[in-house]
Write a structure and sequence with these properties.
The chain has a single domain (4-246), classed as Rossmann fold. It is α/β, with parallel strands linked by helices and 247 residues long. It is built from eight helices and 14 strands. It has helices at residues 12-15, 36-49, 63-71, 78-83, 113-127, 138-141, 148-161, 184-187, and strands spanning 4-5, 20-21, 25-30, 54-58, 86-90, 105-106, 131-135, 165-171, 190-199, 202-212, 222-227, 230-233, 238-239, 245-246. Strand 11 and strand 12 (230-233) form a beta hairpin. The model has no long low-confidence stretch (mean pLDDT 94).
């Protein structure tokens, strides 16, 4: 039996055959406006609700703003931070600013990958994390694309080795159909792609699981919506880019 981590995202566990296989490192790829950050935050908060500690590494947004954004969906992580079951790793501010000085886990030089790994290890140990989201890994290698695969492999070694089931958010441009970074798709255990396409004059969001090691999964593209409670995937519907939605 494959041990799985239940994501709690409506419709996702259904198309994944019950959840993400434990210790898998999943690349969550998509363009702007597709809901990648919301996806990762929802995954973490659902874990906290299930008693599974988690860590969110932020590389592109101030931790204070992240907490505010999560609270808008009803995901108030501050009480879990106080209990020691959730941590934000600040790899954005470099500790600059009054608010940043109050953060517990700070990467003083966000451009130093080894330093980030050290802080991440510390946070995982102290929180006893089972779920980790890094938003986004693209920031780590955007100026060093040749290092993309080796960085993802190093993260995989640390995260899987420490027992975490993780999501690495990966950015792509609006027109790019890849996964963000040369070779990263081969380093990850799973790839989930979020898209935003114009269909019949209207923008529609969709999700497709390109691969997921150790489990069968849906091979279809499913529509999803973002509500005030987060992402909701229509697992019983299929969407065709260039076409419509069918049951």
């Amino acid at each position: 039996m494959i041990e799985r981590v239940v994501t709690g995202i409506p419709g996702l566990d259904e198309i994944l055959g019950g959840g993400i296989p434990r210790r898998n490192v999943v690349l969550l790829s998509g363009g702007p406006g597709t809901g990648k950050s919301i996806f990762g935050q929802q995954y973490l908060y659902n874990g906290l609700q299930r008693g599974e500690p988690g860590i969110l590494v932020v590389l592109e947004e101030h931790p204070v703003q992240v907490r505010i954004s999560m609270a808008q969906f009803g995901w108030d992580v501050r009480i879990f931070e106080e209990k020691g079951s959730f941590a934000l790793v600040d790899a954005f501010t470099a500790g600059i600013g009054e608010a940043a000085k109050r953060e517990k886990y700070v990467v003083r030089d966000p451009g130093d990958f080894n330093l980030l790994i050290d802080v991440l290890r510390e946070a995982i140990k102290e929180v006893n994390a089972e779920r980790v989201v890094i938003d986004s890994v693209t920031t780590l290698y955007i100026t060093r694309p040749a290092l993309a695969r080796s960085m993802v492999l190093q993260l995989k070694k640390v995260l899987s080795g420490m027992g975490c089931t993780s999501i690495l958010v990966s950015q792509v441009s609006v027109t790019e159909r890849g996964f963000g970074g040369p070779g990263v798709e081969h380093a990850a255990d799973g790839i989930v792609r979020l898209d935003l396409d114009e269909i019949n004059g209207e923008l529609k969001r969709s999700i497709i699981v390109w691969k997921m090691r150790s489990t069968a999964h849906s091979m279809r593209r499913h529509p999803f919506i973002i509500t005030n409670k987060g992402i909701e995937i229509k697992a019983d519907e299929v969407i065709r880019v260039g076409g419509g939605i069918r049951e």
